[in-house]
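Justification of computing resources. Each target in the renewal requires a structure prediction run like the one illustrated here; the chain below, 352 residues long, is used simply to show the kind of job we budget for.
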Amino acid sequence: MLDVIRSDIRQLTAYQVPDARGLIKLDAMENPYSLPAALRAEWLAALEHTELNRYPDPQARTLCEVLRQTMAIPEHCGLLLGNGSDELIQILALAVTGANQRLLAFEPGFVMYRLIAQLTGLEYIGVTLTADAFALDLDRALEAITRQHPALTFIAYPNNPTGNLFDPQGIEKIIEAAAPGLVVVDEAYAPFANASFMPYLETAPNLLILRTVSKMGLAGLRLGYLVGAAECIDELNKVRLPYNINVLTQHSATFALRHQAIFNQQTEQICSERQRLIAAFNAIAHIHCYPSAANFLLLRLSNAPAVFDHLKQQGILVKNLHGSHPLLNNCLRITVGTPEDNTALINVLFQC
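Resulting structure tokens:
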């Protein structure tokens, strides 16, 4: 029976999401704050007349209008919505799949670039970051692009799981060198970074900007969006399955984005707590905390797996990166939580 399933699929391991029930959840880069009670009641009232028996607007036109307004999307650019940014990565991969087509990304980086390349039959090219600061090795990157001619190049900005922003001038050179291949700047953590390549869309026709509303506080809605040249977005839209953004997501995201100020306040709280955590970690002798422009921090410890297990025993779940990439040995990724959650984390780490 399983013989009909591709052999390379059978050799893969499914993406694992750990059970976080009963734990302080600091492993998935989520906004720890929910909607205020009054706004939650208003949101539920707005959903009251949603017609669940009808298909959603296939173009999500109202949601797209609100996204353009709140996210400063250039008027001349096309906009494509996905069921999370993962679906948009898959759409991009499917659109370019063919003989000897390649997807290039930087490592350590977001694991879905490699996984989706494997699933869609693209050859994956991983370019290693520098060992000291997880920066772009520009010479290595440009050499790989010149030699491999990738159809797709992904650059996470800030990078996941390291949290740093790459040199924008280096990214500009990669965009130029990769043409006519598409370069996707993944700005999942843009709310916390105060940096974006959105203005570069004016002058770089092969540039696409990938974003999600998950990190700003709407992870449960599974909504990502892709911005780029209108003619390119039109072609990618042919790969999108119809009705991919369900009616509850459309209405909920539209409502939430019209109350953007609430999420901006939460973002400010998260950034403030990020600085408090950095200061606390820097005061612990056995921890090296890397700079971050995201809502998480990368820590290097003398024995990360043991610390991970100890944190879990104390009711705190973080991300153990040890063994995922040679540059991440003895590393943990910590999501910035509420002040109470962060204090609990600091207290346990001081005792390790």
